[in-house]
Specification:
single chain, mainly alpha
């Protein structure tokens, strides 16, 4: 239903917080989003798509920037956790945000 919402309003989306009420148009009931990525597209349109692209670009940049196998393992693990979590539960809790944020940290210093 959220992809259909995005197709109906691809530039600006349907508006922040409107997914639950707009879902009734496509389904027989209103429901909150269960996937962060489709919610971004539906509510924010092209700007949501840009946010998704930046999310993955940042994750890739952090993976490449990591200096050794151990750091890359942490970035990959935290990134996969955040992606899988947001694929099934949106961002209703803080866990995926903390995991993604930690990929930006310099986890291991040069002075090992």
């Amino acid at each position: 239903a959220e992809i259909e919402m995005w197709k109906s309003s691809p530039i600006f989306g349907i508006g922040i917080g409107k997914v639950r009420e707009e879902t009734r148009t496509y389904l027989t009931f209103g429901a909150a989003s269960h996937t962060e990525f489709t919610r971004l597209l539906a509510e924010h349109g092209v700007f949501g798509l840009l946010a998704i692209i930046l999310f993955f670009a940042g994750l890739w940049q952090n993976f490449v920037r990591a200096k050794d196998f151990r750091a890359r393992s942490w970035v990959a693990g935290l990134g996969v956790f955040a992606i899988l979590y947001m694929s099934q539960a949106a961002t209703r809790t803080i866990a995926p945000i903390i995991a993604y944020t930690l990929t930006w940290a310099h986890l291991f210093s040069d002075a090992d």
